[in-house]
Specification:
Blueprint lengths: L8 H7 L3 H18 L5 E6 L1 H12 L4 E7 L13 H7 L2 H11 L4 H7 L4 H12 L11 H16 L8 H4 E2 L3 E2 L14 E6 L7 H9 L4 E6 L6 H4 L1 H11 L1 H4 L13 E2 L1
GO biological process, one term: lipid homeostasis
Family: Belongs to the peptidase S33 family. ABHD4/ABHD5 subfamily.
Subcellular location: Cytoplasm
Length: 266
């Protein structure tokens, strides 16, 4: 199930002055949705920024999350990390300064697509064709699949501004969390599976560092031939990884389940 949250600009102006309050808006909204759906215990999966929100939700409401699955999750590194020197160097260039200014000004790809008006769909089509033209096995998306994906991406980007308006308050330029999840790893109370595409630009090593501090079961799975959108790049591998992560809940003999071929535990 996909849940979209829309946030009014006036509300954002109130919340955005405090990073913790901005995060709380997402977490508390999800908790209200859980109550409305009368859910008690469930497996929670989040991707990218959704993974960050899912992790923060699990930290606040661990009693409701049986297992947490984080796919290419943001938030496990900060620009203060020694490995982030490249960002400091890039910001010192004129290109980096412009990109950083655009980020801090809340100029998003969504805003660009909206501004293009009737030319927006064609630009999105060019992007999706170039980025998602084929699956990991080399099989091309058919015409129907390509159209559906383009329509989905376009309407998601062109819709009324919502969660995107919060990003700059939670992440600095480069997708570095202002309040990194790594700093709260010792507080983890929910068994967790991390899933990363081998070519994911989100670094899985942040999850490895977090695991050292966690006191609950934690595994990290890497899926071949997949990037940040591993569920599109290699859907078969991604589904295998998710099913393996959920083996305790769907298999009569979870301890005898072996990691599917081609997947890697790190």
């Amino acid at each position: 199930m996909v849940v979209n949250y829309y946030i009014d600009r006036s509300i954002l102006r109130v919340l955005a002055f405090d990073d913790a309050e901005t995060e709380a808006w997402f977490i508390d909204s999800f908790e209200e949705w859980r109550k409305a759906k009368n859910l008690d215990k469930f497996i929670l999966l989040g991707h990218s920024f959704g993974g960050y929100v899912a992790a923060k939700y699990a930290l606040k409401h661990p009693e409701h999350v049986q297992h947490l699955i984080l796919v290419g999750s943001a938030g496990f590194s900060s620009e203060a990390d020694s490995k982030s020197e490249w960002l400091t160097k890039f910001r010192a260039t004129w290109k980096g300064a412009i990109m950083n200014h655009l980020w801090e000004s809340n100029f998003t790809p969504q805003k660009l697509v909206r501004g293009l008006g009737p030319w927006g769909p064609d630009m999105v089509r060019r992007y999706t064709s170039a980025r998602f033209g084929a699956y990991a096995n080399g099989e091309m998306l058919n015409e129907t699949e390509s159209k559906l994906l383009t329509d989905y991406v376009y309407h998601t980007l062109a819709a009324k501004a919502s969660g995107e308006l919060c990003l700059k308050y939670i992440f600095s330029f480069g997708a570095f969390a202002r309040m990194p999840l790594l700093q709260r790893a010792s507080e983890w109370k929910v068994p967790t599976t991390f899933i990363y595409g081998v070519q994911d630009w989100m670094n899985y090593k942040g999850a490895q560092e977090a695991r050292k501090e966690m006191k609950v079961p934690c595994e990290i799975i890497r899926v071949p031939q997949g990037g940040h959108f591993v569920f599109i790049d290699n859907p078969v591998g991604f589904h295998s990884a998710v099913l393996y992560a959920c083996r305790k809940f769907i298999s009569s003999k979870p301890d005898s389940e072996s990691l599917p071929e081609d997947l890697t535990l790190v």
